[in-house]
């Protein structure tokens, strides 16, 4: 599932390509991927343009000049592709939004969605989310105060979108590795110094992953040199059996809070 770095990468790359361009068409291949009738969807978006693209947690918010917002959540298996018709991947397209002879393809939206909302509805939907990891108000002290009282594990809390918004399975493991903490640790057992390291690791990992385009394998557009660049830089996620870059011991896979999790049992504590 795309997480904060993947969606932020999409936001940055798409902002320079579609912002301000008139939407000339909209094709719906799967009506369950949207929340209004296809005729209503097309009527609202065609002729408008994207004023700004915002990321909130794992969502992209396409603010239209009509005042309404397209809210995208890719969920598991969802990807985006931007290009001409002859460039489109050999994949089933659930939604296609056209900008002249270039198109934004929404692919794999079996669980994901592209919903049309008013600003008020969008704000209400986003209220359930916790703070963004880069929120200036999420200081080291606020971070510790938010996590310490919680039950469960570090893994379960880092991926809980009501606790922190934007982190999922991959980056929760990468963050814990960077902080030298086991994902199975209980929040109440961490010292203030460990919380400081976890907070710093969270921002360092997410910043690095965004800078390298996240771990999504498929490029966003023809010739895209950035998207997916972090995949090869993952230190523990999906690296079962490979040597830890710090100590050389094999990375192990465990079930933590009913989720797959990867760590080094030797140098994470």
UniProtKB/TrEMBL annotation:
EC number: 4.2.99.18
UniProt key word Hydrolase: yes
InterPro entries: FPG_cat, FPG_N, H2TH_FPG, Ribosomal_uS13-like_H2TH, Znf_DNA_glyclase/AP_lyase
Pfam annotation, one family: H2TH
GO biological process, one term: base-excision repair
Any GO MF annotation of the entry: zinc ion binding
Xref: SUPFAM superfamilies: Glucocorticoid receptor-like (DNA-binding domain), N-terminal domain of MutM-like DNA repair proteins, S13-like H2TH domain
Residue intervals of the Formamidopyrimidine-DNA glycosylase catalytic domain: 2-106
UniProt keyword list: DNA damage, DNA repair, DNA-binding, Glycosidase, Hydrolase, Lyase, Membrane, Metal-binding, Multifunctional enzyme, Transmembrane, Transmembrane helix, Zinc, Zinc-finger
Segments forming domain FPG-type: 235-269
Transmembrane segments: 60-82
Entry's family note: Belongs to the FPG family.
Protein name, as recorded: DNA-(apurinic or apyrimidinic site) lyase
Organism the protein comes from: Paenibacillus mucilaginosus 3016
